[in-house]
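Incident log, structure service

09:12 report received: a user says their structure output differs between two submissions of the same chain.
09:20 pulled the input from the user's history:
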Amino acid sequence: MTRTRAAVLAAAVLLPLLAGCGGDPQEAYCGAVKDHQEELSGIVGSGEPDALLKALPVFRDLQAQAPDDITDEWQQVVGRIEALSEALDEAGVDAATYDRDHPPAGLTDEEKARIDAAATELGSGTTLRALQDLDQQARDVCRTPLTL
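09:34 re-ran on a clean worker, output below:
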């Protein structure tokens, strides 16, 4: 048997096996949406001021499993939450108790400005639209919303 023929035979046998191991990315993503739905609903529905920050690990997992057609939306949402988290962490501020109108003692104007900028970007129309698009995609393709 020639090397070329052996390579073709090996590919013919191995490719279906490898594809079977990987599964359908859309199906895997929809499974993750369903798996995280109750947890995400509890976090976001809590009304806590740091709810989106607490939801970041769930969002990161969904982003990691997202199909290619929604990676930009996940990057927008996760990136904005990460930017706010980073701004709060670098300022040494607890997100759960931070009050913009009454910032903690020792918070510099620069730190406050950075937190404000990150919060503004998180609440921007672009980010909100991305989150709406992700929820709509989950409803349309996965037949389930991101939250209950």
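09:41 both user submissions now match this output. Likely a transient worker issue. Closing.
09:42 reviewer note: The chain has one domain: 24-142. Residues 25-45 form the longest helix (21 residues).
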